[in-house]
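Support reply, case 0932

Customer input (verbatim):
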Amino acid sequence: MSIFTRANIRTWSMLGSAGTFGQAAMGLPAINPETLIVTADLRNFSGLDRFAAAHPDRLINVGIAEQNMVGLAAGLCNEGFNVFATTYATFAAARSADPVRVNMGYMGLGVKLVGLGAGFSVGVLGPTHISLEDIAFMRAIPNMAVISPADCTETVKAVQALVNYPGPAYLRLGGNVPHPVVFAEDYEFCIGKAIRLRGGEDITIVATGPVVYESLQAAKLLEALGLRVGVVNMHTIKPLDTEMLREVYASARLVVTVEEHSILGGLGGAVAEHKCQFAATPPQLIIGVRDYFPHAGDYRHLLSETGLTAPQIATQIQSRWSTVA
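Our regenerated output:
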């Protein structure tokens, strides 16, 4: 029986992606009996209390020692275990940079590093925990896959897909902020294969992470103005689905990337780097967080401050479209 029932999807949505990760983790030992989880003092925030009770020998808490966590996880992978490691996204990228680069990237050890509280999802903790640079760092590491689910349903899909993924990967998740549902039923998920959620011949929005939902709502607002707007869920930022991007370049008159991340080095940069090599047109608009440190605030406040709510996205697109049409 599929776990992707309406009741489960509704529950995951209310838990947020961190809690949903813990729910998905319960099924991992059945998929791969060699599964272990290492955490840097985030057992509760990772939603792993039930996992710890059911599998006490499969959860290792290293305390507030993120570099050691990655090193330990890599060593366990080298011994044949299937290892997920959880910490805050900002610590996964910045504090753990050297072991991530060497143990995961250079050595190619298949740690699945789960960055929790990404973007603004733990924004009340302030700039030290607001993670807006992690995609830029992780996608620059050779051999590293980078995945940013659109909602909690996709979080479960991504965790399941990563269980037997052969290389190192970074899974970018939010916190315990409830997520609007993008995928209300089961669907096919494949690492590296983007999903077209909506067709449109004028503008195509390529979005990643929780702002996929905001992008869908923005597309509806623009549709009311007579614009045909498509939306692509680029859940995997590396490897990038270049086949989908070429379809977008061929069909749209404006490409827009939307991300809850810095405009430097994230999805917008990845798409621009590809597009400049293969297509002079259409023009691209990059929507994300400008180059500054936002102050502490709750999730919706910070989305609004940085122009990432649906009406704000629609306004920015409409303004850029006026120079294209």
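We compared this against your earlier run and they match. Two observations from our side: The first helix runs from residue 6 to 25. The domain at 6-172 is CATH 3.40.50.970 (Rossmann fold). Please reopen the case if you see a mismatch on your end.
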